[in-house]
Each structure stands twice: as C-alpha cells, then as structure tokens.
Design brief:
Layout: H1 2-14, H2 18-26, H3 30-58, H4 66-75, H5 77-81, H6 88-92, H7 102-136, H8 142-171, H9 180-187, H10 191-218, H11 225-241, H12 249-261, H13 268-293
Helix pairs in contact: 3-4, 3-7, 3-10, 3-13, 4-13, 7-8, 7-9, 7-10, 7-11, 8-9, 10-13, 11-12, 12-13
Amino acid sequence: MVVAYAFLAYKLATFGNYDAICEQWRNCNWFNWVVLFLVFLLLPINWAIEAKKWQVLCSGFETLSFRQSLRAVLGALTPAFITPNRIGEIVGRPMFLKSNNRMAGVAAALLNGCAQTIAIVGCGLPSLFFAQHLFSHNEVNFSTYAIVCIGTFGLLLYTYSFLPSLFRWASDKKFALKYKQSLTNIALTSKKTLYSTLLLSVLRYIVFCTQLYLMLLFFGITPNVIQAITTISLYYLFVTITPSIAASEAGIRTSYAIICFGTFSTNTVSIACAGFLLWLINFIVPMIIGSVWKN
C-alpha cells in the first residue's frame, strides 16, 4: 500500500495543469455544478455494478453479501494500482474469500476481466470505422470492416464462453490437483452467469462513458452526440489495449484524450484536465476508500 500511495503522490505532484482546473472551478455556473454532481452520482453506481458482477461470479462457490463483494472490489484496487494492466485485481479480490476458495476466485476474476474487455472492445471496434468517416473522410470498405469486427467480437465471445471448459480441463491435470475442487467449482459456472456478467459489464461501460462525456461538458468541451459516442468508445478502446500500470494511467489517458477529443476541440489543456480529473474520481477515490475499508 505504501508503494501505491508513493506512486499516487508522484502523479499528483507532477501533474502540470492544476491552474486550469482551479480556473474552471472559479468560473463554474449552475450547469457546471449539475454536471459535476452527476459525475459523482454515477461513481457509486459504477462500482456497485462491478461489485454485483463479482457477487454473481462468486455465487457458484461462495455466497457473498453485496457489502462483502464491494469491499473486495475496492480493496483490490490498491494492488491493481502498481501492477501491469491492473492484474493485481486478479489476486487481490480472492484474498477477501475463504482460503479454500481463492483459486476459484482467481479464475472468477479472470472471467470478470474478460467480460469487461469484451464490452469495451466490442463497442470500440465499430467506432474505428465511424471515426474514419467522421474525421478523415477516408473510404473504408464497410463489408470488410464489418466482417473484421464481427469476427473479432465472435472470437472474444467464444474464448470467454470456453474459459469454464478450460478450467475443467486444467482441474484434471497433475499440476492442478491441489486446486481440483476450486477449478471444478468455477468450471461449473453457468452460461446464465457468464452472460449476466457480460451484460453488467456493458452496463458499467455505458456508465463510465457517460461520466467522461459529462466531464468534457464540465470543462466546456461540447461534442455532438455522434462525435461523443465515436471518440469516447475509441478512447476507452485505446486505453484498454495499451499495456500500462494504473499508476501511469493518468498520463496515458491524458494523451489518448488529447488524440481522440482533439479532433473536435483545440482546447488541449481542458481535455487533459477532463481525463485526469475523471481518473482521480473513478479510480483514486475508490482506491483510497478500499485501502481504508479493508483495514
């Protein structure tokens, strides 16, 4: 936890646009306050959906209350902060389960990550096509692109659906005999549970996309609906497929925000502030709550 907070202190100390945030704060009108209030209102909804996903995925081998599930989700954000692509969540969440269920918890966390990735990539890939038409006006063969999108999404969906079978196969192998019962439990995950988790992942995706749109409005960046849907989907696609650690996400998210939203706004400072402030609200605030709560 000390390392995570050291990284956080460094990122906060090296962010160079606090003047712009303070200026925007001083110039807020009633509309800005309403928009910011909605961003904060969606924060607990965002993480409540994530907690529900974890509760659903663990239901086959351990019964968790919603409170226990939320505590595990938030508590795992601290190790996630200092590991590549937040893989610390995969080992962090199972630590809140009973000791004999932790291997099943690792597998459940893997399923959860796959579900959220499918939601982001599935919505982000079509945005590449629309971005070509919206911003560069380059001609792209729609049929070819549709085949690529459907094929990629289908492959991800098949892999996700196949994971319980993979765990079942692994449970019979010599190297996994110690965890046979745990792997068997997660291998029995039903299709209903898998697709309920995927549906919740899509719902959560909509929530944090809405938060980003509201944050852009807060800083006076007003894309139309088509621009917003296209660029926000593209932004989250780029952030997801870029290898990183959460401690460096602020810089990565800021860079991608400028690339994506700079196509319709030249106010790069406000764009950078929007990306940075949303990162603080959506990740750092829950991480701090989780680090305190688990103790």
